[in-house]
Design goal:
The complex is a heterodimer of chains A (about 450) and B (about 350).
Chain A (H helix, E strand, L loop, with lengths): L7 H26 L10 E8 L6 H18 L25 E8 L4 H13 L5 E4 L3 H14 L2 E4 L16 E3 L4 H16 L4 E7 L2 H16 L3 E8 L7 H4 L9 E5 L3 H12 L6 E2 L2 E2 L1 E6 L2 H7 L7 E4 L8 H14 L5 H20 L4 H8 L3 E2 L7 E3 L6 E2 L2 E6 L10 E7 L1 H4 L21
Parallel strand pairs in A: 1-2, 1-3, 3-4, 4-5, 6-7, 6-8, 8-11, 11-12
Antiparallel strand pairs in A: 9-10, 12-16, 13-14, 14-15, 16-17
Helix pairs in contact in A: 2-11, 3-4, 5-6, 8-9, 11-12
Chain B lengths: L1 H31 L6 H19 L2 E10 L5 E7 H6 L1 H8 L1 H23 L9 H23 L15 E3 L12 E3 H23 L1 H11 L1 H6 L4 H23 L9 H16 L4 H18 L2 H6 L3 H16 L14
Antiparallel strand pairs in B: 1-2, 3-4
The chains are: A alpha/beta (about 450), B mainly alpha (about 350).
């Protein structure tokens, strides 16, 4: 008969051995978890969609969220696969990302930097998001990009057009598929010179924040290079509703072109005021007065109604493009939601697929592995033709569309017509271009 | 000189909107003593009455055109409005003039909204401190905003002026300026005239009707009027409805100037509170005077020549004036002696 006995020393020894044994897997787990922030531990992976669900850009945010949901469906093997079928990289198989089912959480940026940061922080810390994406404002994008850099997660920017996002505020963990102010100007200026001549005097009204400043700087430089003169640039607060006080001085300024460096509700209201004051019927310096809107979106055009007819601008993408990628996306999105996607929806859908593809190619969710996979990546089939993700500043380079408000729309969605597809080479610039100088990409931060 | 004349017109135009909203605010404060932060939302709701009216008038019969396709390659839907189907050219005229027709729609709708708001919520806060009134009405404004956003989205909804009233006129010629030196939109001029008529109508109503006389008496001494056996509360409730209707039609007529969005009321509200404070809390003439005065000041301060001397002055001028008035004459330009002075 054996009797199991124990004493204090034996208990301590046994406890130490048992504790070490139990701790072993934890140490290994902790070791791998500590390699980067929010490493997936189960069979799913969580993405954080940080979009404006209230505030001035809520409609863009709603369209972005629709596109994100569609991308998640496609990544998980539901629906028709959309642009996964046309994407030149064939790593995505509809089985999630790296075999992990894709889940998502969404937050409301309110189009405010502090709210956007708080929302992104919550998604990273509480929901375990391994990547944050979204935004419909450059101020928000720059703020959230900075947060993601500190937190050690990838930020796939949504609709942000300021040069600063991949210029002076660029970050190693941040990537932008959308084009920027410089590219808009480089594409638009030659068309404007051709349409309106080179002897023109331009008056700028500019939204007073990072996007407006860089957009104005870009379009002024590009049009001045074509012979135009910039007679004035007036900064307008983002909260301005009635632009009559800003438009009235244009009448007697000697300018024959009004450039509205405004987006969203600002653009709708400033264009409405300009048209009301008869600028489009006015003759100055023996020429017809013209209005230019450097950055267009279909959602804005709908808000401005009849006023957009014949007005030139640029856009990142338009649903009427006939390439296979665009058509696949329009079909998927249109059949699910009943209307064509906006450029905001397109860019965030692309960003989600690009992130997933980079993770597959890198074989990890580690942000540094993903960043490495995205840097210098060449791809096609996502609606913009051959595209390059430049390693120096994490900016995508692709063709840019010059559009104008359609004179005779056939439907409520048919508001813009593509005037020219500007080749990528025409909108490229050196990484150290003065308009993008002053920032430092830094090093990728994997976080924990 | 032409630039100054242009800013005078602009200031009067802005001022007429401020005056109309401030008039409603003052009516409510003067009668019920309520600081109504939901008043801007009433302006916004009025604007959306015009949107709803247009939506009703443009309800369409849908037919398919097999010859054309939509963005998905399916037969294109052709929409023909019912009013055009039923009434032909008259139907098209109704759509064109939908903003003006919306006034007839907005007056009863806004009056009912005002009455429901007063009876259902605000009357429970009469005896509560102003801070409570501000909190509850501000909360109500946010709720109303979110409801509108849920139905109409966040982006502005364009509303065209009637085609015969669109465009701009060379008003400068009438005042001796060179041709095309001062061009001003027809609709903004119409808005100014409209505002003057509404303001005149409200003053006449209060001045020349028995109902108005009782209300004015109640504003001066509510208790005594009550002791005379007059149900002053009922009249004040009606005044709340009237204030809501006035603000609502101001919103309707403003839609061709500023495409309505769910947030527009909040943007006007703060400015109009400053207008009321500068004019004198509870003073109807003060609200109108301050509305036009601040509209003019705001307009002149946004001139490039002025901003070259004091950058950013256009953003703060109204608040600067408010600070000066509160320091020098706390009761406002035309406020009763003792009001906000203790």
């Amino acid at each position: 008969m054996s009797v199991f006995t124990t004493n204090r020393r034996g208990l301590i020894k046994s406890g130490a051995v048992l504790g070490t044994g139990l701790a072993m897997p934890t140490i290994f787990t902790a070791s791998s978890a500590a390699a980067y922030t929010n490493a997936p531990t189960g069979s799913g992976v969580t993405l954080g969609f940080n979009v404006p669900q209230s505030g001035a850009y809520a409609d863009e945010g709603a369209d972005e969220l629709r596109a994100y949901k569609l991308a998640v469906e496609h990544l998980n093997g539901e629906g028709d696969g959309g642009m996964m079928n046309t994407f030149s990289s064939k790593t995505l198989q509809g089985n999630g990302i790296l075999g992990n089912k894709v889940n998502y959480v969404s937050g409301d940026t309110q189009t405010k930097s502090d709210a956007a940061r708080a929302s992104a922080k919550s998604m990273i810390e509480k929901d375990g998001a391994v990547m944050i994406t979204g935004g419909s404002s450059s101020g928000v994008a720059v703020a959230v990009q900075g947060l993601c850099q500190e937190a050690g997660v990838i930020f796939m920017a949504g609709l942000t057009h300021s040069n600063d996002t991949t210029g002076k505020d660029k970050k190693a963990n941040g990537f932008r598929h959308f084009f920027n102010g410089y590219m808009s100007a480089a594409a638009l200026a030659p068309v404007l010179a051709e349409m309106y001549g080179t002897d023109r005097k331009a008056y700028h009204l500019t939204a007073d924040y990072t996007w407006g400043w860089t957009q104005q700087e870009s379009i002024a430089a590009a049009t001045e290079a074509k012979g135009w003169e910039t007679v004035n640039n007036v900064l307008t607060p983002l909260a301005t509703q009635d632009f009559s006080s800003y438009v009235a001085p244009v009448l007697n300024s000697g300018a024959d072109i009004l450039v509205l460096n405004h987006y969203g509700g600002n653009m709708v209201n400033s264009l409405t005021a300009a048209v009301q004051f008869g600028l489009r019927e006015k003759q100055v310096n023996g020429k017809n007065f013209e209005i230019v809107v450097p950055l267009y979106s279909r959602l804005m055009a709908r808000g401005a109604g009849e006023n957009v007819k014949g007005i030139f601008g640029s856009t990142n993408w338009h649903w009427s493009l006939t390439d296979a990628g665009s058509q696949a996306f329009v079909k998927s999105f249109g059949e699910k939601y009943g209307f064509p996607p906006s450029q905001a929806a397109h860019t965030v859908y692309c960003q989600t697929l690009l992130y997933a593809d980079a993770a597959e190619r890198a074989g990890t969710f580690n942000p540094c592995g993903i960043a490495e996979a995205l840097e210098g990546f060449d791809f096609d089939g996502l609606g913009n033709g051959p595209t390059h993700y430049r390693a120096d500043d994490h900016q995508c380079f692709k063709d840019v569309l010059v559009v104008k408000g359609k004179e005779n729309p056939t439907s409520e969605f048919d508001l813009l017509e593509v005037v020219q597809v500007t080749p990528r080479a025409q909108v490229e610039y050196a990484p150290d271009h003065p308009m993008f100088a002053g920032g430092d990409l830094g090093k990728c931060n994997p976080g924990a | 000189m032409d630039a100054i004349f242009l800013q005078v017109l602009n200031g009067l135009d802005k001022g007429s909107a401020y005056a109309l909203i401030a008039l409603g605010l003052t009516l409510i404060f003067g009668t019920l003593g309520v600081v109504n932060f939901a008043h801007g939302a009433l302006f916004m709701l009025g604007a959306f009455c015009a949107v709803v009216m247009r939506k009703i008038l443009t309800l369409s019969k849908i037919s398919l055109d097999p010859e054309k396709t939509n963005f998905l390659g399916k037969p294109l839907e052709i929409k023909t409005t019912y009013v055009e189907l039923w009434f032909g050219d008259f139907g098209a005229w109704m759509i064109d003039y939908s903003v003006l027709l919306s006034i007839a729609f907005a007056i009863p709708v806004m009056a009912i909204i005002g009455l429901v708001m007063e009876r259902g919520l605000i009357k429970h806060f009469y005896s509560r401190p102003h801070a409570d009134q501000i909190l509850v009405t501000y909360g109500l404004a946010i709720v109303l905003q979110e409801i509108i956003k849920a139905f109409f989205g966040a982006n502005p909804v364009p509303q065209a002026a009637p085609s015969s009233m669109g465009g701009a006129m060379d008003i400068g010629v009438l005042f001796g300026f060179a041709e095309y030196a001062v061009i001003y939109p027809y609709w903004r001029l119409i808005y100014f005239v409209f505002a003057a008529l509404v303001i005149g109508g409200v003053f006449s109503f209060l001045r020349f009707t028995t109902f108005g006389m009782v209300v004015r008496a109640g504003m001066a001494d509510r208790e005594t009027v009550g002791l005379l056996g007059i149900d002053i509360d009922r009249r004040f409730t009606i005044m709340f409805g009237l204030a809501a209707a006035v603000t609502g039609v101001a919103g309707v007529m403003y839609t061709p100037i500023l495409p309505p969005n769910y947030h527009m009321g909040m943007d006007f509200l703060v400015l109009c509170f400053v207008v009321v404070v500068v004019g004198g809390m509870g003073s109807l003439p003060g609200a109108v005077l301050a509305g036009f005065l601040l509209g003019l000041l705001e307009s002149f301060s946004s001139m490039n020549e002025v901003k070259a001397i004091i950058p950013g002055i256009d953003q703060i001028i109204i608040y600067l004036v408010a600070i000066v008035v509160l320091l020098v004459r706390p009761r406002g330009l035309m406020g009763r002696a003792g009001m906000m002075e203790d």
